[in-house]
Automatic annotation (TrEMBL):
Gene3D superfamilies associated with the record: Dihydrodipicolinate Reductase, domain 2 (3.30.360.10), NAD(P)-binding Rossmann-like Domain (3.40.50.720)
Domain Gfo/Idh/MocA-like oxidoreductase N-terminal: 1-120
Keywords: Oxidoreductase
Source species of the chain: Fertoeibacter niger
Protein name in the entry: Gfo/Idh/MocA family oxidoreductase
InterPro entries, A to Z: Gfo/Idh/MocA-like_OxRdtase_N, Gfo/Idh/MocA_oxidrdct_glycsds, GFO_IDH_MocA-like_dom, NAD(P)-bd_dom_sf
Domain GFO/IDH/MocA-like oxidoreductase: 128-248
Length: 333
């Protein structure tokens, strides 16, 4: 597959380009907001062409698929242009700033007959897949609660629009809560119904929230507690799933690397759970390629991206108003 990159981003440079090449794909062109930024990114990453005009990317007959990792407010317009150009699209989360725009992207891809996926990398982790398998196999009985703690220390290199620009989709809720929503849906196989939440600026946020906590009610009675932050240098990350017959403790698994530990605790004692240490992004790209070939589904579909956005929007509204919110999934309802 030959890729066009829209967005000269750190995730593209640090994770996606290497993964694309690892699966045998090529990168034909990169587009960024300025010609100078695009050219510098292309030189640094061995990409043959660079441009500040996305029409060059989406109009290139030699480009099969587009990976979008620009700032959040640009995703919808760029994805719609790529879809209109007949390109398959892998888009970073959140898909868009509004639910209506996210649904428009999904529906346009369906009408055009192209594959459209969300780059929710955590569901590609061997640790998360092992946890889901334990739950599905009934190893912990009926699930009672899920706790996700994803409070980290935002690296200096990422302290731009994420902490200063609400118009670009800044804030910890669209950046991390949206991932945790996808994790909960992936592990439990159901969509949150109602949320209560609080948010604050605890040291980095300048006009946007940098920390949030929320509780979500799930359809079959389980509760999810979610904590996200940009300001916690020593908190670690992970998740716990508690059921009537056991609990799962996963540490260090809310990451872009295939690391961490998973422990199952039941009446029989503690059991270390092995899991694959494959590259998360390589797995996501392999699943995407299979979907393009008509042999499978993306790791996270456009519908998955809409659903995680819906939860994140409900969390922000609940935190802003101080009132319990029903999650609005729009066309998915």
């Amino acid at each position: 597959m030959r890729w066009g990159l829209i967005g000269a981003s750190s995730i593209a440079e640090n994770h996606m380009i290497g993964a694309m090449r690892a699966v045998g794909d090529e990168i034909a062109v990169v587009a960024s907001t300025t010609e100078a930024r695009a050219q510098g990114f292309a030189r640094a990453n061995g990409i043959p062409r660079a441009t500040n005009d996305i029409a060059t990317v989406v109009g290139d007959a030699g480009v099969d698929a587009v990976y979008i990792s620009s700032t959040n407010e640009k995703h919808c317009v760029q994805a719609m242009a790529a879809i209109a150009g007949g390109k398959h699209v892998l888009c970073e989360k959140p898909l868009a700033m509004t639910l209506a725009d996210a649904w428009a992207m999904v529906r346009a891809a369906e009408a055009a007959g192209v594959t459209f996926a969300t780059n929710h990398h955590l569901r590609c982790a061997g640790s998360h897949q092992a946890i889901r398998d334990l739950i599905a196999a009934g190893r912990i009985g009926k699930v009672l609660s899920l706790r996700i703690f994803h409070a980290v220390h935002l690296p200096d290199a990422l302290r731009g629009w994420r902490i200063t620009d609400p118009g670009a989709g800044g804030g910890v809720i669209p950046d991390i809560t949206v991932h945790d929503a996808d994790v909960a849906r992936f592990l439990l196989g159901e969509d949150p119904q109602h949320v209560v939440a609080q948010m604050c600026a605890s040291g980095l946020g300048q006009g946007v929230e940098d920390s949030a906590m929320s509780v979500w009610a799930m359809p079959f009675g389980a509760m999810v507690m979610s904590h996200e932050s940009f300001t916690h240098p020593f908190a670690g990350s992970g998740l716990e799933v508690h059921g009537t017959a056991g609990s799962i403790f996963a540490s260090g698994v809310m990451t872009q690397q295939p690391v961490g530990t998973v422990v199952l605790v039941t009446a029989a004692g503690h059991e270390d759970v092995p899991f694959s240490d494959h590259n998360l992004y390589v797995q996501g790209l392999a699943d995407f390629a299979a979907a393009v070939a008509g042999k499978g589904q993306p790791a996270a579909s456009g519908h998955d991206g809409v659903a995680s956005l819906a939860v994140a929007l409900a969390v922000r509204e609940a935190a802003a108003t101080g009132q319990r919110q029903t999650v609005n999934y729009g066309d998915a309802a």
